[in-house]
């Protein structure tokens, strides 16, 4: 071993990627997907939904100060966060299902990182030119031209960052009101802080980090290979047809050689800078742009398209072994995913259809657990919360059962009648309640609080303890 060997580097220097412009079927799908997704993203917070006078009329809103999440007819309280968990599980399994069927279609067409990056590269191309011009500008020394072109690119990126990432705040505020505040330069500092943070993170992620996010930061990119099987769609280079690759002159025969002319068009358009001819790689986001680039070359060479195409590992094997190819859409794993989604979706739906409009929560005092009164009776204290999930004020009667002579006294701002507790619309009523009873024989007695709405007689119960002595 010689001591002249270069020291091993922990990090490889990031090579800047300048994706070349390409046009074709998958590029069109990507533009269409971008326009559709951005359209939904912008329009969604402006959809109105009438929930009555006491609730916001924004269809999709996460109201942090009021601790509510609204999604059209669904209103989620903090106590019902399990619905949100269910929806996240549903979304995750849905993504697993799509990945097992169509590979990384989410990464290639719908992931915000891909959509924003596409938009940023488009701006870069408009201002600085296509791949070769951008590469030259990047390597050129500082000049007036470089300064204004980079200045314009970065300014446009910041504006897009604000319009895209920054628009996220509309989902947390009343969108029309916020627009008005923005127009009058009267945005609350907390909201402004979020707009700035989201603008800058979009600018950094889509302007600088780009493919590094997919390769190094995104956990989904790492574990989605676990959802792949031999029938999952991946982008594949047809090695049998393409090799031996090599340059080709017009009019030369294709006999005894492959159809790949080693033009590297597929590499030049790749947003993650890989060569798909080296086989399926973890970096590939399955955007299909290399298919468009290669099909364009095949068209010019008057050769059949799809030297690079959506393929399955199974069919790649079949071709090598000379067996017939087939694509099986539904496999055992797709049924697992569908089954899990059906169960979780069914549970959410069942929960929503049977969602109670009232909830009763009772918390027994910890210290003192009980008080013995001068007449020998025992008093226990409780914190009671009554959740009124409707948009109307409601009056409830609270009683307790389970012990002989059990009575209640309620306190709010002052003494209250436990038989007539007012809880305002869409709010939580907090009450201090004392239960009195002659000393029971056991030190711990099971009792039940019963809450009944005066008008509808809807009933909620809560089992708790009445403590009358030390154990
Ligand atoms: S674009 Fe097609 S022909 Fe050109 S290098 Fe790639 S695979 Fe070969
Ligand atoms: S190899 Fe092809 S499909 Fe994969 S990221 Fe590059 S251009 Fe997109």
From TrEMBL:
The chain crosses the membrane at residues 29-47, 81-102, 150-171, 191-209, 335-353. Signal peptide: none annotated. It comes from Kordiimonas pumila. Pfam families: Fer4_18, Fer4_5, FixG_C. Keywords: 4Fe-4S, Electron transport, Iron, Iron-sulfur, Membrane, Metal-binding, Transmembrane, Transmembrane helix, Transport. This is Cytochrome c oxidase accessory protein CcoG. The keyword Cell division does not apply. Residues 250-279 form the 4Fe-4S ferredoxin-type domain. InterPro entries: 4Fe4S_Fe-S-bd (IPR017896), 4Fe4S_Fe_S_CS (IPR017900), Cyt_c_oxidase_cbb3_FixG (IPR014116), Electron_Trans/Redox (IPR051684), FixG_C (IPR032879), Helical_ferredxn (IPR009051), Ig-like_fold (IPR013783). NCBIfam families: ccoG_rdxA_fixG. The gene is ccoG.
């Amino acid at each position: 071993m010689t001591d002249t060997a270069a020291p091993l580097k922990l990090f490889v220097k990031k090579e800047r990627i300048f994706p070349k412009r390409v046009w074709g079927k998958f590029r069109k799908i990507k533009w269409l997907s971008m326009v559709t997704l951005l359209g939904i993203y912008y329009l969604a917070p402006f959809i109105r939904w009438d929930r009555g006078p006491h609730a916001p009329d924004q269809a999709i809103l996460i109201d942090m100060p009021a601790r509510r999440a609204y999604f059209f007819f669904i209103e989620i309280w903090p106590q019902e966060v399990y619905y949100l968990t269910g929806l996240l599980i549903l979304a995750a399994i849905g993504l697993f299902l799509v990945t097992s069927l169509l590979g990384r279609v989410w990464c290639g067409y719908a992931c915000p990182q891909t959509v924003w990056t596409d938009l940023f590269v488009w701006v870069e191309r408009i201002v600085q030119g296509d791949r070769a011009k951008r590469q030259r500008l990047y390597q050129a020394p500082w000049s007036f031209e470089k300064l204004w072109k980079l200045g314009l690119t970065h300014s446009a990126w910041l504006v897009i960052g604000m319009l895209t990432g920054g628009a996220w705040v509309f989902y947390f505020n009343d969108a029309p009101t916020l627009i008005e505040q923005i127009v009058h330069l009267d945005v609350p500092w907390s909201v402004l802080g979020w707009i700035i943070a989201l603008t800058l993170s979009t600018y950094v992620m889509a302007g600088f980090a780009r493919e590094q996010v997919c390769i190094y930061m995104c956990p989904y990119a790492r574990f989605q290979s676990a959802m792949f099987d031999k029938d999952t769609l991946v982008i594949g280079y047809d090695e049998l047809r393409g090799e031996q690759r090599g340059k080709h002159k017009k009019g030369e025969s294709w006999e005894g050689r492959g159809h790949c002319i080693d033009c590297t068009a597929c590499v030049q358009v790749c947003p993650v800078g890989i060569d798909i001819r080296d086989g399926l790689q973890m970096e590939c986001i399955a955007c299909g742009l290399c298919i468009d680039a290669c099909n364009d070359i095949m068209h010019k060479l008057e050769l059949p398209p799809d030297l690079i195409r959506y393929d399955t590992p199974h069919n790649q094997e079949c071709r090598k072994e000379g067996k017939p190819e087939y694509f099986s859409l539904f496999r055992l794993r797709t049924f697992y995913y569908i089954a899990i989604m059906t169960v979780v979706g069914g549970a959410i739906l069942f929960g929503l259809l049977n969602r109670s409009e009232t909830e009763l929560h009772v918390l027994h005092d910890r210290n003192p657990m009980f008080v013995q009164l001068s007449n020998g009776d025992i008093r226990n204290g409780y914190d009671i919360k009554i959740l009124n999930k409707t948009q109307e004020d409601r009056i409830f009667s609270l009683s307790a059962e389970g012990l002989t002579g059990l009575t209640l006294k309620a306190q709010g701002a002052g003494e209250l009648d436990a038989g007539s507790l007012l809880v305002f619309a869409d709010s939580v009523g907090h009450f201090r309640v004392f239960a009195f009873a002659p000393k029971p024989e056991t030190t711990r007695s099971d009792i039940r609080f019963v809450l009944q709405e005066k008008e509808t007689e809807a009933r909620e119960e809560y089992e708790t303890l009445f403590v009358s002595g030390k154990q």
